[in-house]
Design brief:
- The chain has 9 helices and 16 strands.
- The chain has about 300 residues and is α+β, with helices and mostly antiparallel strands.
- The longest helix has 16 residues.
- The radius of gyration is 19 Å and the shape is globular.
Length: about 300
């Protein structure tokens, strides 16, 4: 197998030695590569997808896993996941253990589950894609980390304050399954399958193989409206928010007057040409998961 490792994921010490040791305990001697930066990860992942190796392991956070998954989607390669990032949403939603030793054992002893991926203008995402406030926050956070040498969470806090102060609205025309809606919104969240939007499971997915995109957006909601919406979500009453829309679709076309938009894909931000063509790719990715999760 090949292990594509982001050694800076999660801000922890370099886990390479520990990973090699754990794989050797399982009788494996993987080839480990550790590219420097997102573009290098994508390039290495593409090379791994064209290799003769049966398993390609992504060792890192959701960004690293997404880059490797994008190269493997639609191939017969199996994706192994070593969640050594900060949040590890993809691993949690698939029931992949966050403990490194158990995650290595899952790659060796687990079973293959075919899961969906989302796609926008040919770019793959495994968790979600966002327009509006969130990509603005991420872009500002990265700028603060580079210019002011702030830590990730400190930079995220100040970037959020700046984005809320400007609070840009998007005027969108959204076409899906024979209908069109027009929305003036602060954000559009597109999930690879449906997300829990209320209660203790807020932000998680019950499954990633239902073949649907979840679309979530506000309608003319200002700053106070967003806080009110967050309150409703925490107490399980989002359905009472009249200015919040939820749609479950297989594809959607997003149009705006702007020629290019900031788009977040699994936390990574880029500018993309409009219109944005979203679609679900059912069962496009083969992932090694614990046996009991594969059965479900």
């Amino acid at each position: 197998m090949i292990v594509v490792m982001n050694r800076s994921a999660g801000g922890s010490d370099d886990p390479r030695t520990r990973v090699v040791e754990l794989f050797r305990m399982q009788g494996e001697d993987p080839h480990i590569v550790h590219p420097n930066g997102g573009h290098a990860i994508a390039e290495v992942a593409r090379e791994a997808a064209q290799s003769s190796e049966r398993i390609v392991v992504a060792a890192g956070g959701d960004g690293t896993i997404s880059a490797v998954a994008a190269a493997l989607a639609g191939t017969d390669k199996n994706l192994g996941v070593l969640p050594i990032g900060t949040l590890n949403h993809f691993a949690k939603d698939l029931g992949i253990p966050l403990d490194l030793e158990t995650a290595v054992r899952t790659i060796n002893d687990g079973e293959v589950a075919a899961v969906d991926v989302g796609e926008v203008n040919g770019r793959i995402f495994i968790n979600n894609s966002n327009l509006g406030l969130y990509p603005q926050i991420v872009s500002r956070r990265e700028a603060q980390q580079q210019r002011l040498a702030r830590g990730k969470w400190t930079a995220f806090f100040w970037a959020t304050i700046q984005a809320l102060r400007r609070f840009p609205f998007l005027d969108l025309r959204i076409a899906f399954e024979g209908q069109q809606i027009f929305r003036r919104t602060a954000f559009l969240f597109v999930g690879n399958n449906e997300y829990e939007i209320a209660g203790f499971n807020l932000g998680s997915r019950a499954c990633v193989n239902a073949g649907k995109l979840g679309l979530y957006l506000t309608h003319r909601t200002g700053r106070l409206g967003l806080f009110r919406l967050a309150f409703h979500a925490l107490f399980g009453r989002v359905d009472q928010a009249e200015d919040f829309d939820v749609f479950c679709v297989t594809e959607a076309r997003i149009e705006t007057r702007k020629r290019r938009l900031l788009v977040a894909l699994d936390g990574e931000v880029q500018r993309m040409e409009t219109p944005l063509e979203y679609r679900i790719r059912p069962a496009a990715l083969r992932v090694l998961v614990p046996r009991e999760k594969a059965a479900r």
